Amino acid sequence: MHLGTTLTQFIMEEQRRVPGATGEFSALINDIATACKMISNGVNHGGLLGVLGAAGATNVQGEEQKKMDVISNEIFLKRNEWAGHLAAMASEEMDEVYQIPAGNPRGKYLLLFDPLDGSSNIDVNVSVGSIFSILRCPGESKTEGPTPVRAFLQPGTQQVCAGYALYGPSTMLMLTTGQGVNGFTLDPNVGEFVLTHERMTIPADTNEFAINMSNYRFWETPVRRYVDECIQGKQGPRGRDFNMRWVASMVAEVHRILTRGGVFMYPMDEKLRDKGGKLRLMYEANPMSFIVEQAGGAATTGRGRILDLQPAGIHQRVPVVLGSRNEVERITGYHLETQAAA
Ligand code: AHM
Ligand code: MG
Predict the structure, then answer these.
(1) pLDDT digits (tens, 9 = 90+) for 90-126
(2) What is the CA radius of gyration of the chain?
(3) What is the set of domains in the chain, with CATH numbers?
(4) Mean pLDDT of 143-167
């Protein structure tokens, strides 16, 4: 039996070290954790609960919504709209900012989330996850009128907390509040997340890369160069063999990198240029970049640090290169060389 630290205990002990902390933040994390437990339950039961398959609609991004996308979004909203910690929410599954219902108390935080990332994997019983990011709501938006989109448009460096839940062989919750990255495993028998992975660190070097190779013909030169060099292995300029993985669930990909290192790329390509990239800045790239940096890794667009970007919209997309520091720096260097030569 694991009698370790529970998530609630961990967050409360961390908060006690912050002078003037009101406990609001701890309560918010608890509500997010409850949402993740409920989603985990839905994902684990799958066909038994009738939650697999398409919802028959597309989201704001024009992507097909799965039933479980819609259910997970609803769970996040319902678990977080009542307690008074939030001024507003934003989700991958909703076009507009979600306002706290009239009559409910409002608080000082903003919550952004992708309720079920990698949901193309849900029907084939492969790992999926939830990703979230917490910001402080700027002063004037906290109590008066609807919270405007501009309240959310803060660079990733301003995140108070970021995390993800991975619904894999076990359900895990990974968290950072800017003091390193800690991981909790859900004990399904007692319904608690328990601290199992303390202070996770990403090795600076790696022999493993992750990218959707089917986009090769659309990539930019620096990405082709990097991947070509990896594939040439011992015979190529890198002088060593590389391994490749592609789960198509960013949460599973980032979790592997936190566990054993690696580099993950969803770079700019010709197909994506008009959209700005594939992954969403505010509820995918920013929280994952915060986690990766807090574990000693790096995260860039190929050109600059993701966390420094000034967002222009809540659904903005960006190219993403993240993971083991030395590889991310190499790939970014290749982009900058190409840019300088142009
Ligand atoms: P989603 O938010 O619609 O699930 O899309 C994001 C996912 C990431 O988890 C994953 O890295 C990527 O899309 C996979 O894309 P592809 O299907 O092009 O391989
Ligand atoms: Mg997503």
Answers:
(1) 999 999 999 999 999 999 999 999 999 998 899 899 9
(2) 20
(3) 7-197 (3.30.540.10), 208-341 (3.40.190.80)
(4) 94
Using a cut of 0.90, tell me whether the model's pTM lies above it: yes
| Residue 322 pLDDT greater than 60, yes or no | yes
pLDDT 10s digits, 130-153: 999 999 999 755 666 899 999 999
Q: Hey, which of 94, 279, 282, 288 would you mutate to test ligand 1's pocket, going by the most ligand atoms within 8 Å of its Cβ?
A: 279
Residue 80 and residue 258: Cα distance in Å, rounded? 28
The Cβ of residue 108 has, within 10 Å, a number of other Cβ atoms equal to: 21
How many angstroms is it from 68 CA to the middle of ligand 1?
15
**Ligand 1 site, residue 119, Cβ cutoff 6 A:** yes
Residue nearest to atom 19 of ligand 1 (CA): 248
Query: What was the pLDDT predicted at 50?
Result: 79
Q: Is 97 left (phi over 0), alpha (psi -120 to 50) or beta?
A: beta
pLDDT tens for residues 218-232? 999 999 999 999 999
Q: Is residue 192 in contact with ligand 1, taking CB distance under 6 Å?
A: no
Q: Whose CA is nearest to atom 15 of ligand 1?
A: 248
Cβ burial of 97 (10 Å; 0-12, 13-18, 19+) is buried
Instruction: Give which of 138, 131, 83 is closest to 110, Cα–Cα.
Output: 138
Per-residue pLDDT, 2 = 62
- CB of residue 117 inside a 6 A radius of ligand 1: yes
Residue 339's identity, in one-letter code, is Q
> Quick check: CB of 160 below 6 Å from ligand 1?
no
- What is the Cα–Cα distance from 260 to 275, expressed in whole angstroms? 32
Which ligand 1 atom sits closest to the C-alpha of 279?
A: 6
Q: Can you list the alpha helix ranges (DSSP code H) found in 52-159?
A: 67-80
Distance 54 CA to ligand 1 centre (A): 16
Cβ of 55 closer than 6 Å to ligand 1, yes or no, is no
